[in-house]
Amino acid sequence: MKTFTLDEAQSLLPVLESLLKRAIEGKKAAEEIEAQLQQLRHRIFLSGGMMVDILSVTRQKAEAEKFVRQVPHFEAMFLPILQKSCAARKNLC
Fold it and tell me: What Rg, from alpha-carbon coordinates, does the chain have?
């Protein structure tokens, strides 16, 4: 298992920060869309049904699903870095 030098670790920080920021933003956006869809479901339920702009709702659901599909991509990018980071920490202790 490869360990990081200090220079390698420092050079990875901007990459990790960028990936983490994108993951957090994606999660927030997906949660906001899901909250909007839940409010719509609730309004439909309370009114006993209503006309819904299906195209708009479909777009919102697709947008939320796009963020959810990115999660494995982020995990795949983070995992090797985290594994190397753990190995580096073990050598320092």
Answer: 20
